Structures are given as C-alpha cells and as structure tokens.
Amino acid sequence: MATKLTKNNSLLEQLQNKIYNYRNHVDYLEIRLEQSESTTISFYGLQLNTINSHFSLAGSIRACHKGGWSFVTFNNISELSNRIEEAISHAYLVGKKTTQLAPIQAIQDYVAVKFGRDPRGISLEEKRQLIEGYNQLLLNFDPRIQSTNVSYSDRFAITYFVNSIGSCIAQERLDVNGKFRAMTCGEGSLVKQGIKSISSRTDYNTLCNIDKQVIGAAEQAIRQLEAKPIKGGQYTVLLDPYLAGVFIHEAFGHLSEADSISENPQMEELLKLGKPIGTEKLNVIDDATIDGLNGSIKYDDEGVPGQRKYLVKNGVLTTHLHNRETSGKMREAPTGNARAINAMYPPIVRMTNTAIETGDRPVEEMIKDIDLGVYAIGSLGGQTNGEMFTFAAAEGYMIRNGKIAEAVSNVTLTGNVFQTLKDIEAIGNDSTYNSGSCGKAGQAPLPVSIGSPHLMIKNVVVGGH
Fold it and tell me: Residue 2: pLDDT band by 50, 70, 90 thresholds?
C-alpha cells in the first residue's frame, strides 16, 4: 500500500539519505516523488462520458554521468535503492563526453497552496451536478446547438525533489479546470463551435456561478452560423489578446526553447542573442513569478527558481529558455524552465507564462486606422513548422473604413514568424492573460498561460474559400 506523504513525515529525510549515499557515484543525481489526487468528469451531449477519481504515488530518478542521462521511474519506496543503482548503471552505459550543467544554489523550501475552497472536500456528486448544469445550459441555449463537450477536472499534488547538490524542495500544486464547448453545423455540414475555458490555482469556487461565461461558448457557436467564408488574400489583421497570445507562444515561444537550439547550428544562428527580430515596439516575456497564473512556479523541476525574463526587448532577442544542461552547454544563465507534466516524465525545456507586453494604443484607434482588414478572435488551433505558422481563428469580422463590419468564417492566418514580428504596426494597451495547456515531446497537458494585448499586423496572408 502506498505511503501518503505529508509535510512532517520521514519520507523526505529518506530521500535525502538515499541521495547522500549515492551522490559521488555520478556527476549528478536527483529524485522526484509525487503524490496526487485528481477528479475528472465529462459530458458529451447528454451522455455522461467520464467520471473518476484517482490517487497516485510515483516517482523518478535521473542520473547524469559524462554527459549521458538516464531516467528510471518507480512506485514503491522500498525499491528506491535498486532503482537508483539501475539509473546509475544506465548513465554509465551512455555517458561518453563531459557533463555540462549550469551551477545553481542548493535550496531547501516548502511551497504550499493558498487555498480558497479546496475541491478535495467536495463530493463527486456535487461536482457532477455542477458540470451537468453547465452542460444543460449549453444544450438549452438554442435549438441549433446540436452537441456539447463539457468537462471538469481538479488535481492536487505534492512533489518532493532532492538532488546531489543539496536541494530539498517540496511544492504543492492545485489545478481546477472547466472546459465548455458548444457545437452546431453550418452550410455544407461544417461544424461551428464556441469554446470557453476557466481555471484556478487556488479555489473550486472559481467554477461556481459562471453561467454567463459558459453561455458565451454557445453564443460564439451561433454567431459563426451567420458568418460567410472570407475571401482569401493579404490583409491588415487585428488579433485579439487570446489569438495574439497563442501566436507568440506557438510561433515564437517554442523557438526560444534552447533544447531545439543547442544542438542545431542553423537554429543557433537564426536565434542568436542580440539579433533584431521584430519591431522596436515589441517586448516578449516569459514570467513564472506572476501569482496565480497557470504557468507560475516558484521552482522548476530541476530546483531552479522561476524567473521573469525578456525573450525580446525592444525588438531584440535577449534570452533563450533553458534547463541546466542547455544553459551549461550554451554558457548562458539558467532561466528556470525545466518542467515535466508529472514525476513519471523527465523535465524538459518548457515555457511558463509567455506574453507580449502591453503597448500604448487603444484598440478603438487601431480599428479606425484600418481601411480594409480582418479582426481575428480566439483560436481553434494551428501548427508550426520551424519559423512558419498557420493558425485558425475561432471568429472573424471584416474591418471596413475603420469600423467592424460583417462576420466571416474559415479565417486562417499563415506566415513567417520573424517577418510577422517585424510587421507589427501597433500594440494595444489592454493586455490580458489566458490559461492554457501545452504539448511537447509526448508531455501534455502542461499548464501554461498566454498573454498579449491586441496586435495590429500588416500584410498577413489570410486563407479562406
């Protein structure tokens, strides 16, 4: 039977003793042990699709010897010595070069959640009734709403981390999420949908009494029924804060992650620090220190403090995102961006809260400056390929003679990220952060946040039909 971790039991001391006994066998050694409790409930249309609660206790060991890494998981504390020895032997098999890890300070800390209403004290039935009520709201909103996909999830975890340099960190984390999708069919059986997501790091009550926000998903889907396909072409485009945040995260943020740079000379030259890559108005940050956001962390999964850093300052590339290895190899300062979705996965270079900083232009002025353009709102997803991107907006409107005009559908934006950053003509004064999740290297969903004000960009290729 799994042993439950608390703030005061002896498991943490046991992990420290294990590390101490093996610390000189390899260049670097760490143990992460995570206890988690989670609930998931989902509806698809009228059907209750999923309802479950889950408790787990699991961990992992990473060892590095002569530049060679090994990763071993475990779920039984009694086997910890065997698993450590297994990790060490694997590291010896692959290590052929030199270990290059940026030096960091040893840290000892316990990071607790500041609870509002703790979801662990709420019955599964009450949670089901809450999410079922929101699902029914969407289904009843309009007879043209043909289906829904509504889900609730909460997860509380304590992760214990110890390493061979003397760090000993315990971090609590709570995530409460509600996702609301309403779907209907337009002409030619094309599915039109509206999506809303609401989350909290501290309080179950964030998902209570949110009828207006939930109904917004149905309203968005119905608006799309009346939209006509846009005529493809090159336009000045106004991005709302959500789509602008998705753009900077997907198209630029992932390029800033140094594990895709450190072993690729072409990318290293393309993303050389000090290189102008956008308009002088542009400032892009990755900030793990903002209280309460989805991507905020006090320490990353290598025990490096979370930080606020400029990726781009006044249009110039200033920082790459690092784990300790890429930081050591590239001889740049650690940034606290080694993250894993849970203790069963190795930490890799990931974003936290990535955003374009606020500018000085009211959105009303930007609209007035556009004779013919497109207002692109929200995101239905997209893809990137190196420096090229394609994104689909959730909603779109034509802008004619400085005014918002008719609704349009099938709005897709395509371009080169670096040219697009240079083509930003105005940055709004209305910055907003939105919660999201990110996938990379088979690790998803990782909690992140995206932020931006409205952006006005010239010469954007907009696809349509």
Answer: very low
Q: How far apart are CA 409 and CA 370, in angstroms?
A: 19
What pLDDT, on a 0 to 100 scale, did the predictor assign at position 5? 41
pLDDT in tens, 176-202: 999 999 999 766 557 889 999 999 999
Q: How confident is the model over 385-396, as a mean pLDDT?
A: 93
Q: What is the pTM of this model?
A: 0.94
DSSP 8-state class, residue 29: E
Give residues with Cβ within 8 angstroms of 97, minimum separation 6. 66, 67, 68
Q: Residue 464 in contact with residue 417, Cβ under 8 Å? A: no
Instruction: For residues 320 and 273, give the distance between their C-alpha atoms in angstroms, rounded to a whole number.
Output: 8
Tokens of 52: 């479950």
Residue 175 shares a structural domain with residue 247? no
418 with 435, same domain: the answer is yes
C-alpha distances in Å from residue 279, one per residue of 275, 353, 419: 12, 22, 10
- pLDDT digit string, tens, across residues 149-171: 999 999 999 999 999 999 999 99
**CB contact set of 392 (below 8 Å; sequence gap of 6+):** 379, 380, 381, 382, 411, 412, 413
DSSP string, 314-341: TTEE---B--HHHHHHHT----S-EE-S
Roughly what angle, to the nearest 10 degrees, separates helices 211-225 and 124-141? Answer: 30
How high does pLDDT run on average in the chain? 94
CATH number where 146 lies: 3.30.2290.10
- What region, left, alpha or beta, does residue 188 occupy, with left being phi > 0 and alpha being psi -120 to 50 degrees? left
Domain end among 225, 255, 277: 225
